[in-house]
């Protein structure tokens, strides 16, 4: 299910848009709670999630995620979201030491 942050947003620039929002929002105006300091990706609290694969598999359902570079150490992640996040992190780590595109 897409979260609020993933929905595309149109900028609210006109006065009528602002008033419409205010009406919908029962008069609450201003900016929403700042996301400053919040992690981009919430940390998974599952024990062993994100540990390097030189450790024993923390959990039978954990999947091993190998980075795109052969020198990257593989890590254990929960299947699904954590594994996807892990793959993205491995991709990011590969940038800057020759593992990325071009
Ligand atoms: Zn996890």
* Helix content range: 10-25%
Q: Could you say which structural class the secondary elements and strand pairing correspond to? A: mainly alpha
Question: What general outline do the C-alpha atoms trace?
Answer: elongated
Helix-strand pattern? HEEH
Oligomer: single chain
Helical element count?
A: 2
Main sheet specs: 2 strands, antiparallel
Average pLDDT over all residues: 77
First-to-last CA distance: 34 Å
Order of the strands making up the biggest sheet: 1-2
Low-confidence stretches: none
User: What is the count of β-strands?
Assistant: 2
Radius of gyration: 20 Å
- β content, as a range? 5-15%
The molecules bound to the chains, other than polymers, are:
zinc ion
Structural description of this entry:
The protein is mainly α and 102 residues long. The protein has a domain at 46-102. The protein is built from 2 helices and 2 strands, in the order αββα. Strands 1-2 form a two-stranded antiparallel sheet. The chain is elongated and about 60 Å long. The model has no long low-confidence stretch (mean pLDDT 77). Bound molecules: zinc ion.
């Amino acid at each position: 299910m897409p979260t609020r942050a993933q929905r595309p947003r149109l900028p609210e620039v006109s006065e009528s848009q602002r008033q419409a929002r205010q009406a919908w929002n029962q008069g609450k105006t201003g900016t929403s709670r700042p996301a400053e300091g919040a992690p981009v990706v919430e940390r998974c609290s599952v024990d062993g999630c994100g540990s390097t694969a030189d450790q024993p598999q923390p959990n039978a359902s954990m999947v091993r995620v190998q980075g795109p570079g052969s020198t990257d150490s593989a890590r254990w992640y929960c299947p699904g979201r954590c594994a996807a996040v892990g793959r993205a992190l491995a991709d990011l780590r590969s940038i800057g030491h020759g593992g990325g595109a071009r």
